[in-house]
Amino acid sequence: MTDLSLSNQTFATKPAPPNAATTFRLPTQWIGVAPFFIFALMFLILPTIYLVFGAFQRSDGQFTLDNILQLVSDPSISSSYWVSIKISFWSAIIGAFAGLAIAIAIVRGGLPSWTRSATLTFSGVASNFAGLPLAFAFLATLGRVGIVTTLLRDVLNINIYAMGFNFLTTSGLIAVYLFFQIPLMVVIIVPAIDGIKKEWGEAASTLGATQWQYWRMVVIPVLWPSFLGTVILLFANAFGAIATAYAFAGPALNIVPIKLYSQINGDVLHNPQLGYAIAFGMIVITGLANVFYIWFRTRSERWLK
Questions:
Q1: Burial zone of 70 (CB within 10 Å; 0-12 exposed, 13-18 middle, 19+ buried)
Q2: Could you give phi then psi for residue 57, rounded to 5 degrees?
Q3: What is the CA radius of gyration of the chain?
Q4: In the CATH scheme, what is the homologous superfamily, with its name and number, of domain 76-304?
Q5: From CA 201, how far away is CA 231, in angstroms rounded?
Q6: CA distance 53 to 122
């Protein structure tokens, strides 16, 4: 007993070996993502903070709410918001349903495998095709002397411009925006459709469910969060688009991104503080859209696990 207690005391007085976990080590695991955080800080977070503060300031730096109130009191600004919301809403709805139909066809429609790869490749390119190239492509195709316009007029005796078609109207811009809205929907919704397990259909068939019952009670509830989330993402994508619309009409078109551009860089409507307020309103709308998109996306991922 005496030897045992002495040995215990001896071991107790010995210093503990250094713990490898407590030694200082450079956080090398963060090096890979450091460029992303630096880029986000410099080109997203800091500019956003700057314009939010600028939206509540006068030109002399004093606090004011006049810029925010002018978003509602100025008819041209408020109407530009409504026009942008209308274009974004309808392009998102039409693009979502058209893209969903294409995605279901290439994933579960029994088409050859090459159609899926070809469609996804085109969709990945077309979803990022905007600005001056897209405007030129539509003018060359559906302009007043475009190839499709000429063929419709000469072969089928259909004059789309006599029927009221115009790129500078709401319907005209919706048609243009659909070129990148539909492919974006295809790219995003295909993984969700892939997540629908074949075992679910086999189980429903075993239990005596019809094809319509299977889609109504299984497929649609599973795809619904992904579909709604993608519609919101398409809305935000169209709401912030400026290059294509500006290429068609310049500052004459009354949508929010062009109104913002005119306030920041315009020679006639130059008012940076009001431009900051317009940008702040856009951030609020697109921010809410992205919050709902993340929420719906989380729900759909939980279903598909």
A1: middle
A2: -130, 150
A3: 28
A4: MetI-like (1.10.3720.10)
A5: 26
A6: 41
C-alpha pair distances (Å), 67 with each of 205, 260, 277: 61, 13, 6
In degrees rounded to 5, what are phi and psi of residue 197? -75, 145
Which two tokens mark 80? 């530009």
Look up residue 134 and give its amino acid: L
Residue 303 has pLDDT above 80, yes or no: no
Helices in 155-271 by DSSP H: which ranges? Answer: 170-194, 198-206, 211-214, 220-239, 243-249, 256-265
Residue range 188-205: average pLDDT? Answer: 86
Stretch 211-221: mean pLDDT: 85
Amino acid code (one letter) for 11: F
Q: Which helix (H) or strand (E) holds 63?
A: none
Length of the chain equals 305
Question: For the chain, what are the domain ranges?
Answer: 76-304
Predicted structure pTM score = 0.81
Pair of tokens at residue 14: 């010995």
- Which amino acid type is present at position 7? S
CB 115 within 8 A of CB 123: no
Contact 232, 296 (CB under 8 A): yes
Q: State how far the alpha carbon of 44 is from the alpha carbons of 36, 263, 300, in Å.
A: 11, 20, 28
- Distant-in-sequence, close-in-space partners of 136: CB < 8 Å, separation ≥ 6: 247
3-state helix, strand, coil in the chain (%, to 5): 75, 0, 25
d(CA 161, CA 144): 7
